[in-house]
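Hi support team,

I submitted a single chain yesterday and got back a structure, but I'm not sure I'm reading the token output correctly. Could someone confirm the output below corresponds to the sequence I sent? I've pasted both exactly as they appear in my results page.

Thanks,
R.
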Amino acid sequence: MRWILVCGLMVGVAVSACASGNSELGCTPNEAVQCVCASGLEGVQECNNEGTGFKTGCQCGGESDVSDSDTLVPDSQESDTGGEATDTGEVTDTGEATDTGEATDTTETDFGDPCDPDPCVLKEPTCDGYSSVVYETPVCVSSGATADCNHAFEKTSCLLEGQTCADGACLAIDHPSDFTYGPITMVVSRLKIGYQTGPDLCCFDLSGDGERDNALGQLIMSVEGLIDGATNNEVLAEMIQSGSWIRLLNLSGTVETEEAVVVHGLVGQSENGSPADNLTGDGVFSVKPTSFEPGSLLPSIRFADGSIYFDNEWSLQAEGAQWRIPLSLGPLGESIYTVRSAKLVAGLVSTGNGYGFEDGMLGGHVLLVDILSGLNEYVANTCSCLGLGQLDLVTPKQGGGYTCTPIGNSSCTGDEALCDQLGVYCGASILLLKPDLDTDGDMEDDAFSVGFWIDATSATLTGVNVATP
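Hi R., thanks for writing in. Yes, this is the structure output for that exact sequence:
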């Protein structure tokens, strides 16, 4: 033991002497020198070839072979723990192993391209109500292992083309029986002219002035008392109750779903045992062929722009129709007048066999020229006693306005008293006609606003009655 200690001291002195002897160089070239690690343990560092510094920092082996008694530099050199420590730096350099980010990335499964082969299939054309839906070639979009098919399509309203939709294509209607009906049918149970004043104030602001407009209703109210007989509302009520005037409303959509709908008005034929059953909510009706326009064979009453929506209750709004309604203008005669740009608004309610509505509003306008044409038609068909022959009672004046054809020798008597009054008071009657709407934008009022209260109850539709004209 003493020999080892002596040798150790000698080696230590030698090392110290060498280090001091080469202080100008820094260290002895290529010589390993003892050093102290940060942990307090001893390590080794090797001088470079020039003796100007060390090749590496102090190489520490951590838990090395150097024991408490094995503190001599030669022993450390023999065990080459510095080299082993250097080697363990490479082991410690487990960044390659720790760099498991690459390994983690490789855990992603390669699903391939889910769009190869393309799984998307072209959809067949279809009908959405009265519109044709034609699909384009689908585009496959991959999302991970999933393929999503993008089906672009073109939607065409067949109604705007005067056609119907079948098997995804717009087709001309060859026969009324080819027409496709919607799932909801109602029958009109009340139609009542509203007025601009009083409790029957109705219906829409058609002029944009913030006030409800019903100039024709107001005119009718003022002239009805000039002749004997039932009022318009009394006549309309009797026609509906007796079944002589049946109008059906058929909707392309369903209630409790907010969607666009088309509403068709149809001339109905009762299939019930008696007219009293028409308005019970369980009435059964067929459709008269006269409901359809010649040529296009689409319903004459067609609200092409409609919707079912929810606003505290399920409601219906539809517009764009023309609806011919029989009206009497008192001393101005009676005729069937076309309500143009008709608009319908109603809150829908469930009724025994489907849906209907109460206190709905129907409004639009009647052209002044239509009223005068109706007057001339009435006179031509009823008042031959005026002796006009082929002449019209009312004719347009050059430069605007209208004039009355002078009556020569009238032979009107008794039941023809109204005809006689028309001949005598034609000029005064024309002065009563004061339209309130400008429909053609020429700054001249040329139409009468009009509004009706309308009710409807549920009904069942069987199709076209080809035996009934």
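A quick pointer for reading it: The two ends are 137 Å apart (CA to CA). Let us know if anything else looks off.

Best,
Support desk
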